[in-house]
Amino acid sequence: MSATYDRLIALLTKLHEAPPEDTTPDATYAELDVDSLTLVEIVMHVERELGVTIEDSELHPDLSLGATAKLIDERLAG
């Protein structure tokens, strides 16, 4: 997909130990059993590492990994 997607997967694997075979662009956080605390941690890491702001409400369990990467890329583009 994109460099952002790859960074997101690396972050998710680090924070949640998600199996690489399950981390597809269409996979949602709910399907990966990511809890709300981990979602908040992801937001914090993205903000710190990439310098983009994402509201906690934007990153919800039904959002896919691909959609998250797209959201981050849109914020990076300005």
Automatic annotation (TrEMBL):
Domain of life: Bacteria
One Pfam family linked to the record: PP-binding
Carrier domain span: 1-76
Protein's name in the database: Acyl carrier protein
InterPro entries, per database record: ACP-like_sf, PP-bd_ACP
PROSITE patterns, A to Z: CARRIER (PS50075)
